[in-house]
Amino acid sequence: MPSTVTSLDAGAVLARLVAACERVRSATRFDDVLDVVAEEARALGGARHAWAARVELAAISTVRSTTDESASGAPRPAPSRTAAPEAASPPLAALLGAARPLARANGILAVAMPGSSGTPVGLLAISRTDDVHDDMLDLALTQLAIVAGLALEGAQLRARVEGVTKAREALLASVSHDLRNPLNTFAMSAGLLRDDLERDDIVASRGISLISRMERATSRMQGLIEDLVEASRIDAREIEVTPREVNAIQLVKDAVQAATPAPPAKSAAVTFEATGEDALVLADRSRTLQVLAKVIAFQAKATGEGGAIRLGVAHEGDAVVFTARAFGPGGMPIPPPPEGRGGLALLIAKGLVEAQRGTLSVEAGDALVIAFTLPAKQALG
Prior knowledge:
Blueprint: H1 10-26, H2 30-45, E1 49-56, E2 59-67, H3 90-97, E3 102-105, E4 108-114, E5 120-127, H4 135-198, H5 204-235, E6 244-247, H6 248-259, E7 269-272, E8 280-283, H7 285-303, E9 308-316, E10 319-327, H8 343-355, E11 360-364, E12 368-375
Parallel strand pairs: 7-9
Antiparallel strand pairs: 1-2, 1-5, 3-4, 4-5, 6-8, 9-10, 10-12, 11-12
Helix pairs in contact: 1-2, 1-4, 2-4, 4-5, 5-8, 6-7, 7-8
C-alpha cells in the first residue's frame, strides 16, 4: 500500500510519482493497471476516493475505484503551498505551462489517460475534501495518467497476443483431434493390405474393401485440409461476409434439408419445428448455412446412429438465437467436448458467427446444446 502524500512538497510528490509510475508499468493486465493507478492517484493527491476507468470508443468501461479506509470523516487540512517548482527542476516549469487534458469541478479532479496516439484510452479522477488548486498535484496526476495510458495499451497488446496464442493452440488441438481417426484408418488398412501381400494370400474383394477404406480416409483428410485452410483464413480475418435481410426460419429449413441423408444412410435424425412468427436476421446466407452445416455435422458425429438433433429459432431482443439440441440414442445425454477439443467444425462455426457480429456457445445438460446468435433486422436498422 503506497504512503499518502498529505503535504504537497515537490520532492515528496516527485518521489511518490516515480514509485507510482514503476508500479503502474509493472502491471500487466487491464484490471491490475486500473487498480494500481487508482490507488497511486489517491495516495498522490491525499484523496479520499480515486477512480480509474478504461475508455473504449469514447465510452467509459471497466471502472475501478479505491478509498482511503483509514481516513476519518473530518476534512483534511489544506495542503501547504510550496515554492515554484522552477527552483527544483526547470523542465517542470515548461510542463506546468503546457496544455493538459485536465478538468476540475465540485472537488473532483479528472485527467485523461492518453495512448501512444494521443487518443484517450482511460480516465483518472480523485475526490478531495478541499478545493485547493495545486500545480504540482496537477502535474503529478497528468504524468501518472500518461504512464497509465501507455500501460493500458501494453496490457491490450498482451491480451491480444494471449488471445492469438490460445486460438492457435485450439486450432492445433482441433486438427490433431480430427486427423487422428482417418490417419488411423488409413494406417490400419495399409497394414492389413501389406500383410496379405506378404503372405501372397490376397483376396480381390478384401483388397478392394481395404483400398476403399483408404480412399474414404484420404477423402476425409482432404476435407480436413480444406477446413484447416478455412480456419486459417477466419483466424486471419480474410473471409468476406455480406449481411442481408434473411428469413431465419427458412435458413434452418434449408439446412435441415441439406443435412437429411438419403435412404438407406443411417445417421442422427435432424428435425425442425417452426414456432411463432418469422424472424428476420441480418446475416450472410451462405456463411450461416455453413455454420448450421458444421453444427449439425458435429452433433451428428457426437450422437451417432439413433440419435436426434432438434433445431430451433427464437427472436430475443436485438438478436435471433439459433439452437441445436442433440440427444443420444434413447434420449441419452451427451457430454460436452473438452475445451479446445471441439474439432475444426466448431472452430469454423464460431469464427463465422463472430465475423457476423454474433456469439456461439456450447452447453451440456439433458442435451448437448449449441446456440449461436446473429443480429436481428432492427438491431442494425
